[in-house]
């Protein structure tokens, strides 16, 4: 009997950057589709999640941000979703933080953008559900942030 490889857990930090009832999203082409993501990325060994999100935001957007608080914790276990065979070894944990820009929010342009990234866009919070924001499970929670940033459940679970 063949033993399946054990998935490695990858942790990352994502940013919900708000300004004037808009959110900053990275525009991308991924898996042959035009889509949007929250800025952020992988945590490096020895780096805390707050430092990781600040570094990733700077790299992808050129913005300096202050981390306000943790909004949500998301897991993605590939074996439980659309491509269980191809993603059997995928297990991601994403900490999604509310961030406030401390540098000029109109001066965008990261120095180490992801290879799938094609741009940056300030999107009105109310329009987020109409955008192809991935993962889909965060569209409604993000759009709901315009309701005075009420506290919501922080753990989103294993969602695609």
Task: Name the CATH homologous superfamily.
Answer: Nucleoside Triphosphate Pyrophosphohydrolase
Mean pLDDT reading? 86
Kindly estimate the percentage of residues that lie in beta strands according to DSSP: 35-45%
CA radius of gyration:
16 Å
Shape designation: globular
Helix content: 10-25%
Quaternary state, please? single chain
The SS-based structural class is mainly beta
**Annotated CATH topology:** Nucleoside Triphosphate Pyrophosphohydrolase
> What's the CATH architecture name?
Alpha-Beta Complex
| Extended strand count | 8
The major β-sheet equals:
8 strands, mixed
Measure the end-to-end span: 30 Å
How many individual helices? 2
Low-confidence stretches: none
SSE blueprint and pairings:
Elements: E1 8-19, E2 22-30, E3 33-37, E4 40-42, H1 49-61, E5 65-77, E6 90-101, E7 117-124, H2 139-143, E8 155-158
Parallel strand pairs: 1-6, 5-8
Antiparallel strand pairs: 1-2, 1-4, 2-3, 2-7, 5-6
InterPro entries: NUDIX_hydrolase-like_dom_sf, NUDIX_hydrolase_CS, NUDIX_hydrolase_dom
Cofactor: Mg(2+)
Protein name: NUDIX domain-containing protein
